[in-house]
Amino acid sequence: MKEGLNLDLNFEFFSGKRVDDIVILNFGETPIIHLLDLNVKESLFEYLRLVEKDDSVKIVLIIGSSQKMEHDEYLEFYKHIVTSGSSVNSFERLFNAINQVILRFTSFNKIIIHADSGNIIPPFLNISLACDYRIVGEDTVFQNPSMKLGLVPKGGGVFFLSNILGPGKTIEYILSGKDISAQEAMSMGIVDKVVPPGNLNEVALSVARDFSQPSVYLLSGIKKLVNISKKDLANCLETEDDILRDSIRSAEFRKVFDE
Protein backbone atom coordinates (compact mmCIF):
# COMPACT_ATOMS: atom_id res chain seq x y z
CA MET A 1 0.00 0.00 0.00
CA LYS A 2 1.25 3.50 -0.83
CA GLU A 3 2.51 5.33 2.25
CA GLY A 4 0.64 8.53 2.95
CA LEU A 5 0.56 11.45 5.36
CA ASN A 6 0.40 11.14 9.12
CA LEU A 7 -3.31 11.69 9.70
CA ASP A 8 -3.42 10.68 13.37
CA LEU A 9 -4.33 14.07 14.82
CA ASN A 10 -6.39 15.37 17.74
CA PHE A 11 -8.38 18.59 17.68
CA GLU A 12 -10.72 20.38 20.04
CA PHE A 13 -13.89 18.56 19.07
CA PHE A 14 -12.77 15.72 16.82
CA SER A 15 -9.92 13.31 16.28
CA GLY A 16 -8.61 11.68 13.13
CA LYS A 17 -6.91 8.32 12.86
CA ARG A 18 -5.57 6.38 9.89
CA VAL A 19 -6.16 2.62 9.75
CA ASP A 20 -4.42 1.39 6.60
CA ASP A 21 -6.24 3.10 3.70
CA ILE A 22 -9.13 4.29 5.90
CA VAL A 23 -9.38 7.49 7.94
CA ILE A 24 -11.63 7.42 11.00
CA LEU A 25 -13.10 10.67 12.30
CA ASN A 26 -14.51 10.63 15.84
CA PHE A 27 -16.55 13.63 16.94
CA GLY A 28 -16.64 14.87 20.52
CA GLU A 29 -19.32 16.47 22.65
CA THR A 30 -22.02 18.79 21.21
CA PRO A 31 -20.75 19.13 17.62
CA ILE A 32 -23.31 21.81 16.69
CA ILE A 33 -22.00 24.21 19.33
CA HIS A 34 -18.40 23.67 18.24
CA LEU A 35 -19.22 24.28 14.58
CA LEU A 36 -20.28 27.82 15.47
CA ASP A 37 -16.63 28.53 16.36
CA LEU A 38 -14.88 29.66 13.17
CA ASN A 39 -11.45 28.38 14.24
CA VAL A 40 -12.79 24.99 15.27
CA LYS A 41 -14.74 24.62 12.04
CA GLU A 42 -11.68 25.58 9.98
CA SER A 43 -9.61 22.92 11.75
CA LEU A 44 -12.10 20.30 10.53
CA PHE A 45 -12.03 21.60 6.96
CA GLU A 46 -8.23 21.80 6.94
CA TYR A 47 -8.03 18.19 8.10
CA LEU A 48 -10.47 17.14 5.38
CA ARG A 49 -8.30 18.94 2.80
CA LEU A 50 -5.29 16.90 3.96
CA VAL A 51 -7.27 13.67 3.69
CA GLU A 52 -8.66 14.61 0.28
CA LYS A 53 -5.18 15.22 -1.14
CA ASP A 54 -3.81 11.90 0.12
CA ASP A 55 -4.25 9.34 -2.66
CA SER A 56 -3.46 6.51 -0.25
CA VAL A 57 -6.73 7.15 1.62
CA LYS A 58 -9.71 5.41 0.02
CA ILE A 59 -12.51 5.64 2.58
CA VAL A 60 -13.45 8.04 5.37
CA LEU A 61 -15.42 6.62 8.30
CA ILE A 62 -17.21 9.15 10.51
CA ILE A 63 -18.26 8.03 13.99
CA GLY A 64 -20.99 10.24 15.44
CA SER A 65 -20.65 11.75 18.89
CA SER A 66 -22.06 9.79 21.82
CA GLN A 67 -22.80 13.09 23.60
CA LYS A 68 -24.77 15.01 21.03
CA MET A 69 -27.72 17.32 21.42
CA GLU A 70 -31.12 15.59 21.62
CA HIS A 71 -34.75 16.68 21.13
CA ASP A 72 -35.34 18.70 24.31
CA GLU A 73 -31.86 20.25 24.26
CA TYR A 74 -32.42 21.19 20.61
CA LEU A 75 -35.61 23.05 21.51
CA GLU A 76 -33.81 24.76 24.42
CA PHE A 77 -30.98 25.71 22.07
CA TYR A 78 -33.44 27.49 19.77
CA LYS A 79 -35.21 29.05 22.76
CA HIS A 80 -31.93 30.42 24.10
CA ILE A 81 -31.10 32.03 20.76
CA VAL A 82 -34.57 33.60 20.48
CA THR A 83 -34.67 34.91 24.05
CA SER A 84 -31.09 36.21 23.96
CA GLY A 85 -32.09 39.02 21.60
CA SER A 86 -29.53 38.13 18.93
CA SER A 87 -31.58 35.55 17.08
CA VAL A 88 -30.99 36.64 13.48
CA ASN A 89 -27.19 36.73 13.65
CA SER A 90 -27.00 33.54 15.70
CA PHE A 91 -29.27 31.67 13.32
CA GLU A 92 -27.29 32.95 10.33
CA ARG A 93 -24.10 31.54 11.85
CA LEU A 94 -25.80 28.23 12.56
CA PHE A 95 -27.28 27.92 9.07
CA ASN A 96 -23.98 28.85 7.43
CA ALA A 97 -22.04 26.31 9.50
CA ILE A 98 -24.45 23.49 8.66
CA ASN A 99 -24.47 24.44 4.96
CA GLN A 100 -20.68 24.36 4.81
CA VAL A 101 -20.44 20.93 6.43
CA ILE A 102 -23.16 19.45 4.21
CA LEU A 103 -21.61 20.81 1.01
CA ARG A 104 -18.11 19.77 2.09
CA PHE A 105 -19.16 16.18 2.64
CA THR A 106 -21.09 15.91 -0.62
CA SER A 107 -18.22 17.42 -2.64
CA PHE A 108 -15.56 15.28 -0.95
CA ASN A 109 -13.64 13.11 -3.41
CA LYS A 110 -13.71 9.95 -1.29
CA ILE A 111 -16.58 7.75 -0.16
CA ILE A 112 -17.77 8.65 3.36
CA ILE A 113 -19.39 6.11 5.67
CA HIS A 114 -21.33 7.53 8.62
CA ALA A 115 -21.95 5.50 11.78
CA ASP A 116 -24.12 6.68 14.67
CA SER A 117 -26.49 5.56 17.41
CA GLY A 118 -28.83 6.89 20.07
CA ASN A 119 -31.22 9.81 19.64
CA ILE A 120 -30.52 11.80 16.47
CA ILE A 121 -31.98 15.26 15.76
CA PRO A 122 -32.47 16.59 12.19
CA PRO A 123 -29.07 18.34 11.74
CA PHE A 124 -27.24 15.08 12.48
CA LEU A 125 -29.61 13.07 10.29
CA ASN A 126 -28.97 15.53 7.47
CA ILE A 127 -25.20 15.39 7.94
CA SER A 128 -25.42 11.60 7.71
CA LEU A 129 -27.56 11.90 4.56
CA ALA A 130 -24.77 14.01 3.04
CA CYS A 131 -22.52 10.97 3.44
CA ASP A 132 -22.54 7.99 1.09
CA TYR A 133 -23.41 5.06 3.36
CA ARG A 134 -25.11 5.00 6.75
CA ILE A 135 -24.83 2.49 9.59
CA VAL A 136 -26.75 2.90 12.85
CA GLY A 137 -27.14 1.05 16.11
CA GLU A 138 -30.39 -0.75 16.91
CA ASP A 139 -31.04 1.82 19.65
CA THR A 140 -31.14 4.69 17.15
CA VAL A 141 -34.16 6.97 17.09
CA PHE A 142 -34.43 9.76 14.52
CA GLN A 143 -36.22 12.54 16.37
CA ASN A 144 -38.55 14.87 14.50
CA PRO A 145 -39.15 18.25 16.22
CA SER A 146 -40.13 20.08 13.02
CA MET A 147 -43.81 20.38 13.94
CA LYS A 148 -42.99 21.59 17.44
CA LEU A 149 -40.64 24.28 16.12
CA GLY A 150 -42.69 25.10 13.05
CA LEU A 151 -39.50 25.16 10.98
CA VAL A 152 -38.31 23.23 7.96
CA PRO A 153 -35.34 21.02 8.94
CA LYS A 154 -32.00 22.71 8.29
CA GLY A 155 -29.30 20.91 6.33
CA GLY A 156 -30.94 19.63 3.16
CA GLY A 157 -33.26 17.20 4.90
CA VAL A 158 -36.16 17.77 2.51
CA PHE A 159 -33.78 17.55 -0.46
CA PHE A 160 -32.17 14.27 0.63
CA LEU A 161 -35.37 12.63 1.85
CA SER A 162 -37.25 13.58 -1.33
CA ASN A 163 -34.60 11.74 -3.33
CA ILE A 164 -34.89 8.69 -1.08
CA LEU A 165 -38.59 8.56 -0.19
CA GLY A 166 -40.20 10.68 -2.88
CA PRO A 167 -41.98 14.01 -2.25
CA GLY A 168 -45.18 12.57 -0.79
CA LYS A 169 -43.56 10.35 1.83
CA THR A 170 -41.15 13.15 2.77
CA ILE A 171 -44.05 15.52 3.42
CA GLU A 172 -45.89 12.81 5.34
CA TYR A 173 -42.87 12.07 7.56
CA ILE A 174 -41.99 15.68 8.41
CA LEU A 175 -45.59 16.73 9.09
CA SER A 176 -46.27 13.65 11.22
CA GLY A 177 -43.92 14.92 13.93
CA LYS A 178 -43.22 11.27 14.70
CA ASP A 179 -39.84 9.79 15.56
CA ILE A 180 -38.63 6.80 13.56
CA SER A 181 -36.70 3.80 14.82
CA ALA A 182 -33.58 2.31 13.30
CA GLN A 183 -35.54 -0.54 11.71
CA GLU A 184 -38.12 1.86 10.28
CA ALA A 185 -35.32 4.00 8.86
CA MET A 186 -33.79 0.87 7.34
CA SER A 187 -37.07 -0.13 5.67
CA MET A 188 -37.48 3.42 4.33
CA GLY A 189 -33.98 3.44 2.85
CA ILE A 190 -32.74 6.25 5.11
CA VAL A 191 -30.00 4.01 6.54
CA ASP A 192 -28.18 1.11 4.93
CA LYS A 193 -27.34 -1.16 7.86
CA VAL A 194 -28.58 -1.64 11.44
CA VAL A 195 -26.34 -3.37 13.98
CA PRO A 196 -26.20 -3.93 17.76
CA PRO A 197 -24.95 -0.66 19.27
CA GLY A 198 -22.05 -2.40 20.98
CA ASN A 199 -20.79 -3.62 17.60
CA LEU A 200 -21.27 -0.34 15.72
CA ASN A 201 -17.64 0.71 15.42
CA GLU A 202 -16.44 -2.80 14.64
CA VAL A 203 -19.02 -3.35 11.90
CA ALA A 204 -18.48 0.13 10.46
CA LEU A 205 -14.74 -0.47 10.17
CA SER A 206 -15.41 -3.86 8.56
CA VAL A 207 -17.68 -2.23 5.96
CA ALA A 208 -15.03 0.43 5.35
CA ARG A 209 -12.43 -2.30 4.75
CA ASP A 210 -14.75 -4.03 2.28
CA PHE A 211 -15.40 -0.76 0.44
CA SER A 212 -11.68 0.03 0.26
CA GLN A 213 -10.82 -3.06 -1.80
CA PRO A 214 -11.35 -1.56 -5.31
CA SER A 215 -8.94 0.89 -6.90
CA VAL A 216 -9.04 4.54 -5.88
CA TYR A 217 -10.08 5.39 -9.46
CA LEU A 218 -13.19 3.20 -9.27
CA LEU A 219 -14.10 4.60 -5.86
CA SER A 220 -13.67 8.23 -6.90
CA GLY A 221 -15.59 7.56 -10.11
CA ILE A 222 -18.53 6.11 -8.19
CA LYS A 223 -18.48 9.10 -5.85
CA LYS A 224 -18.56 11.58 -8.76
CA LEU A 225 -21.45 9.80 -10.45
CA VAL A 226 -23.48 9.46 -7.25
CA ASN A 227 -23.02 13.17 -6.58
CA ILE A 228 -24.54 14.18 -9.91
CA SER A 229 -27.93 13.72 -8.25
CA LYS A 230 -26.92 16.34 -5.65
CA LYS A 231 -26.09 19.14 -8.10
CA ASP A 232 -29.09 21.20 -6.94
CA LEU A 233 -28.23 20.87 -3.25
CA ALA A 234 -26.56 24.29 -2.91
CA ASN A 235 -29.64 26.02 -4.32
CA CYS A 236 -31.83 24.02 -1.96
CA LEU A 237 -29.75 25.10 1.05
CA GLU A 238 -30.03 28.75 0.01
CA THR A 239 -33.79 28.39 -0.36
CA GLU A 240 -33.94 26.75 3.08
CA ASP A 241 -32.15 29.76 4.54
CA ASP A 242 -34.63 32.16 2.94
CA ILE A 243 -37.58 30.17 4.28
CA LEU A 244 -36.05 29.91 7.75
CA ARG A 245 -35.24 33.63 7.92
CA ASP A 246 -38.88 34.46 7.25
CA SER A 247 -40.03 31.86 9.77
CA ILE A 248 -37.82 32.94 12.67
CA ARG A 249 -38.84 36.57 12.24
CA SER A 250 -42.51 35.66 12.51
CA ALA A 251 -44.62 36.18 15.62
CA GLU A 252 -45.88 32.62 15.26
CA PHE A 253 -42.37 31.22 15.69
CA ARG A 254 -41.75 33.25 18.84
CA LYS A 255 -45.03 31.99 20.31
CA VAL A 256 -43.48 28.51 20.41
CA PHE A 257 -41.22 29.69 23.23
CA ASP A 258 -43.88 31.66 25.10
CA GLU A 259 -45.61 28.49 26.21
CATH superfamily: 2-enoyl-CoA Hydratase, Chain A, domain 1
The domain count comes to 1
Instruction: Return the CATH architecture.
Output: Alpha-Beta Complex
CATH topology annotation: 2-enoyl-CoA Hydratase, Chain A, domain 1
Total DSSP E strands: 10
What kind of sheet is the major sheet? 7 strands, mixed
Helix content: 40-55%
What is the C-alpha radius of gyration, as a whole number of Å?
18 Å
Structural class: alpha/beta
Total number of helices? 13
Give the spatial strand order of the biggest sheet. 1-2-3-4-5-7-10
Overall spatial form = globular
Instruction: Report, as a whole number of angstroms, the end-to-end distance.
Output: 60 Å
Q: Proportion of β residues?
A: 15-25%
* Overall mean confidence score, pLDDT: 89
Order of helices and strands: EEEHHEHHEEHEEHHHEHEHHHH
Ranges where pLDDT stays below 50 over 5 or more residues in a row are none
CATH class: Alpha Beta
Relevant terms:
7-stranded mixed sheet; single chain; 259 residues; globular; alpha/beta; 3-stranded mixed sheet; 2-enoyl-CoA Hydratase, Chain A, domain 1
Q: Can you give a write-up of this model?
A:
- The protein is an alpha/beta fold and 259 residues long.
- It has 13 helices and ten strands.
- Helix 4 packs antiparallel against helix 12 (233-248) and helix 7 crosses helix 8 (167-176).
- The model has no long low-confidence stretch (mean pLDDT 89).
Write a brief caption for the model.
With 259 residues, the chain is α/β, with parallel strands linked by helices.
